[in-house]
Amino acid sequence: MPKKAICAEIGAWKGDFTSEILRQTKPKKLYIIDPYLHVETYDKAWYGGLDSSQEKMDEVFKSTQQRFENELYSGQLEFLRDDSTKALDKFEDDHFDWIYIDGNHLYEYVKLDLENSFKKVKSGGYITGDDYNLVGWWDDGVTKAVNEFIENFKDSITVISIKGTQFILRKN
Ligand SMILES: C[S@@+](CC[C@H](N)C(=O)[O-])C[C@H]1O[C@@H](n2cnc3c(N)ncnc32)[C@H](O)[C@@H]1O
């Protein structure tokens, strides 16, 4: 991804990938979009089932904020503790240089994340994400949504790379 960008990570969990984004791309501004919400019915998700609770999610949020306290203080990083659709809606269209999608992996959520990101990323910007080609508890929702998006938006995007579980698309 381009350096010094205005970018967003949808779904950050404890911030391991956030840390890589900061180290490798030195963004001008990185928005972390994550509701840190326990969803009981997602019993196989990190944020669902018996191993999770809202208390634990609040702890994950707090410790992730602490992990990046310097970047938060400088304004390089900002948390939007919200569902990705609601959070992205707060931005003007064509705002971001790139958006990384790794939030709710169910088909209907990934579909929305892709379509909303398409609006919010500038022309020449990137829509990228994780867990393509993985079936998981989300029943292959990422692969299905990405494939459908590539087909439906074929005149408006270029597939830059699909390697392993990572996909990179460019808005034309
Ligand atoms: C797979 S983890 C993210 C892992 C992280 N990107 C990394 O590589 O270290 C998925 C995250 O998505 C978040 N999430 C779930 N539903 C979401 C939604 N509707 N919008 C944004 N994030 C969501 C969860 O709270 C969880 O932290």
UniProtKB/TrEMBL annotation:
Domain of life: Bacteria
Pfam families: Methyltransf_24
InterPro entries xref list: SAM-dependent_MTases_sf
The entry's keywords: Methyltransferase, Transferase
GO molecular function list: methyltransferase activity
Gene3D superfamilies: Vaccinia Virus protein VP39
UniProt-listed GO biological process terms: methylation
Name used for this protein in its record: Class I SAM-dependent methyltransferase
Organism per entry: Fulvivirga lutea
